[in-house]
Amino acid sequence: PWRLFHRCNRLLTSQIISYYDSINQCKKELPEYFNFASDVLDEWSRLEKDGRRPANPAFWWVNDEGEEVKWSFEELGFLSRKAANILSEVCGLQRGDRVIAVLPRVPEWWLLNVACMRTGIVFIPGTSQLTAKDILYRLQASKAKCIITNDTLAPAVESVMPDCQFLKSKLIVAKGSRDGWLNLKEL
């Protein structure tokens, strides 16, 4: 199966190179605005629906216990639009606002990354090894309006909240709820 993937990958790579070559040679116009989520992911979803591109997973995640999350391009598009709506409508974020995501590499990390691309929100990743002091510094330096984390790191965020004047919303990626936090999975 990996050979099939690599064969498609070569085809895709050659298409991308020829597209950029045509732009460099002034045969195609450089787009004024480019959005990876809508211009690439949504286009691949459309091509798969039309049968002009083989159906391959857009996202495939496996944890240490062997649990899998596999999303098609259509599913990734749908879920990222839902996450984008949460960020813009529920959290009140706009293009150019900053979001800090302090999460381990769980599927929601990539989903939020694509959602931020869709909306023009600046996605600032942070390792799950950050301390409360590290989180405080990043929140103050970035003037982030939203932070997204898990149950493990939520207490560290809560301990520095009084010093974070720009922070407007807190999203948690967890199975249960936590007081004062919006739950991404429930939303």
From TrEMBL:
A GO cellular component annotation in the UniProt record: mitochondrial matrix
Record field: catalytic activity: a medium-chain fatty acid + ATP + CoA = a medium-chain fatty acyl-CoA + AMP + diphosphate
Keywords carried by this UniProt record: ATP-binding, Fatty acid metabolism, Ligase, Lipid metabolism, Nucleotide-binding
Family in the record: Belongs to the ATP-dependent AMP-binding enzyme family.
Transmembrane segments: none
Pfam families given in the database record: AMP-binding
Protein name, entry field: medium-chain acyl-CoA ligase
SUPFAM superfamilies: Acetyl-CoA synthetase-like
InterPro entries: AMP-dep_synth/lig_dom, ANL_N_sf, Mitochondrial_ACSM
Gene3D superfamilies xref list: N-terminal domain of ligase-like
UniProt EC number: 6.2.1.2
Matches recorded under PANTHER family: ACYL-COENZYME A SYNTHETASE, ACYL-COENZYME A SYNTHETASE ACSM5, MITOCHONDRIAL
GO BP: acyl-CoA metabolic process; fatty acid biosynthetic process
UniProt KW Ligase keyword: yes
Domain AMP-dependent synthetase/ligase, chain residue ranges per copy: 52-176
Taxonomic lineage: Eukaryota, Metazoa, Chordata, Craniata, Vertebrata
Molecular function in Gene Ontology: ATP binding; fatty-acyl-CoA synthase activity; medium-chain fatty acid-CoA ligase activity
